[in-house]
Amino acid sequence: MPKEYRTIQEVAGPLMLVRDVEGVTYDELGEIELASGEKRRCRVLEIDGGNALVQLFESSTGINLSNSRVRFLGRSMELGVSEDMLSRVFDGLGRPIDGGPEILPEKRLNINGLPMNPAARNYPQEFIQTGVSAIDGLNTLVRGQKLPIFSASGLPHANLAAQIARQAKVRGTDEPFAVVFAAMGITFEEANFFTDSFRETGALDRSIMFINLANDPAVERIATPKMALTAAEYLAFDKNMHVLVILTDITNYADALREISAARKEVPGRRGYPGYMYTDLASLYERAGRQKGKNGSITLIPILTMPEDDKTHPIPDLTGYITEGQIILSRELYRKGIAPPIDVLPSLSRLKDKGIGAGKTRADHANTMNQLFAAYSRGKDAKELMVILGEAALTDIDKLYAKFADAFEQEYVSQGYDANRDIEETLDIGWKLLRILPRSELKRIDDKFLDEYYGKQG
């Protein structure tokens, strides 16, 4: 039987100090029993001699210092995992909230996971088709990659996240594919949107959802992505599945870190966030990847809203250092009615070259991708010049580029949240748009591809 302590010294917000404890370790789980018999969970944050600073998972209301008892459970936080978790919805601490039965676990895993040895990693190289042209065609997602979406307040990142979760697949294989979706600090309305969207399209059958609401405790918000990644590791490396993990919203997670850091009276770093936020985010993101000798993989799409649309804010800044690129949503495109409003020029997938080409997508993919980027960039420059000097100041070829830029946004980037385009359709739309320009302008495309595709009527 675990030893019980009646030595609660102080309760301050989400923190509680217990004195004269023995054999208690960092990150160990505890249980507080109130005088009424109600039980609440906690976790050890800090040990100083015989004093334990613990963090409460629920409210501290009603905890009487003299009548409440604390017992430590001798283990850190764990998630009971099983294949029965697929098609289920859980809260941020891994408890079912969909009205279904409790999971009978095949095993229990520590939610902090085990760091993946860099020498044991396989290089990401298989193409994942999301059905979204601006990602598949220009900033390709590769199996085992970490590719965040940088959004901003009021932009439809929830719609894009749901679309990717519904549509994503590894092409040319019948290997099992699953989605682990974790939402942190979202509203009831957003939670209902995600669960309804997954149910209506049948995507829930191959998904595990973890939902942490805005009114749930901050400490639960910190546990939610770890729960999701633990479930993903089990499916990927024990059950050999390809797993896509979507985490939204990392900004809410970082704010919860800051809240708890402030309660612990730690010295703040940039913008009040703790100095260890880089390490903390890396401990999440680096759990994605592929392992040598294992068929499964974890591909990660973290979504974050940039405070004040600022790319240099600590959260997007640190995320950009750790991950392999970023997809950026644009407020300007959103105002134009482009859906999804992906700004392709500042967006980047550092591994896209590894996942495209003959045998993966199509031989002409790299050439058309480079030409589309170049033409769209010149078209946007021409449109800016037109605003300053008027259309009469543009050459005929600049007018064609301006026309191309408009058509590119309307037909290639904008596709709505229900259209699921395969990569061939995306590439064909690219060729249709490039035909707006004379063949002599397509300098980034090999002549053999121009001969094969440029003259085609599509």
UniProtKB/TrEMBL annotation:
Name of a matching Pfam family: ATP-synt_ab_N
Keyword Secreted included in the entry's annotation: no
Domain annotation ATPase F1/V1/A1 complex alpha/beta subunit N-terminal: ranges: 8-74
UniProt cross-references to SUPFAM superfamilies, sorted A to Z: P-loop containing nucleoside triphosphate hydrolases
An annotated Gene Ontology molecular function: ATP binding
All copies of domain ATPase F1/V1/A1 complex alpha/beta subunit nucleotide-binding, residue ranges: 131-349
Protein's UniProt keywords contain Ion transport: yes
Keywords: ATP synthesis, Hydrogen ion transport, Ion transport, Transport
Chain ranges of the ATP synthase A/B type C-terminal domain: 354-454
Family: Belongs to the ATPase alpha/beta chains family.
Identification of the protein by name: V-type ATP synthase beta chain
